[in-house]
Amino acid sequence: MKIGVIADPHSNLAALKAVLKDMPRVDELVCVGDLVGYAAEPNEVVKLARAKRMRMVMGNHDYATVTRDVRGFNPLAAKAALWTADNLSKENLEFLSNLPTHLVLTYGKQRVYVAHGSPRDPLNEYIFPDTSNRVLAELVRDLDADILVLGHTHMPIERVVFGKLILNPGGVGQPRDRDPRASYAVLNLGKDVKVSFHRVGYDVKITAEKIEAAGLPSELATRLFFGW
């Protein structure tokens, strides 16, 4: 069983298309939240994700878009979230509002828990590549799942704690590990669980130009060239 895992498309249609084109054949697609925010093509990204029948959870930017609650957001993120709320179709707003905050997916004998942030704070907690084993142990100790899939940080993670795999596929639409290429992962399930991480280049300039043309903050366009 092969699962394609993506996170944080963030309204970046060119990056999402590049990832889907590059991805090997998989049995299911899982998106770990934040379909929207930051970039200028939220309707197109939501439409494509829905067409691909991805299993999806809500991210903090999805939540901010449907509620217009941008408390805790920096000014750039807040402006983008409110712009997205103004420009997203009614149908797509309703779709985002109905996304679950977490999923528990069963594949054979293996259970996969999916949340944007973490099991204890599905929308907002950041679990970084250098998060301590103590914190990770707290997350998975009582988790009734074999694999924990997270997003939110836009940084790839593969850690094993108490025999449980913790995975973040990295960011599709706005990578933050100083590599501007879109990131995704393929999870191979079976007797042996294996993860492969993949990077794919896309036309950053196109996405940047659309951000600028939409009147969104220019910093959101510039950072895409640097992967930060």
Average predicted confidence as pLDDT: 97
**Global shape:** globular
- Strand % is 15-25%
DSSP summary, beta strand count = 10
Radius of gyration (Å)? 16 Å
CATH level-3 fold name of the domain at 2-103 and 170-225? Purple Acid Phosphatase, chain A, domain 2
Number of helices: 8
Distance between the termini: 33 Å
Helix content: 25-40%
CATH architectural group of the domain at 2-103 and 170-225: 4-Layer Sandwich
Biggest beta sheet attributes: 5 strands, mixed
- The poorly predicted ranges are none
- The largest sheet has its strands arranged as 3-2-1-9-10
Question: Can you offer a commentary on this structure?
Answer:
The chain has helices spanning 13-22, 42-51, 60-67, 75-87, 90-97, 133-140, 204-213, 218-222; strands at residues 2-6, 28-31, 55-56, 102-107, 110-115, 147-149, 156-161, 164-169, 182-188, 194-200. It is of the alpha/beta class. It has a domain at 2-103 and 170-225: Metallo-dependent phosphatases (Purple Acid Phosphatase, chain A, domain 2, 4-Layer Sandwich), CATH 3.60.21. Helix 2 links the parallel strand 2 (28-31) and strand 3. Helix 3 packs across helix 4 (75-87) and helix 3 crosses helix 5 (90-97). The protein is globular and about 50 Å long. The termini are far apart.
Quick rundown:
The chain has a domain at 2-103 and 170-225: Metallo-dependent phosphatases (Purple Acid Phosphatase, chain A, domain 2), CATH 3.60.21.10. Helices cover 32% and strands 23% of the residues. The protein is built from eight helices and ten strands.
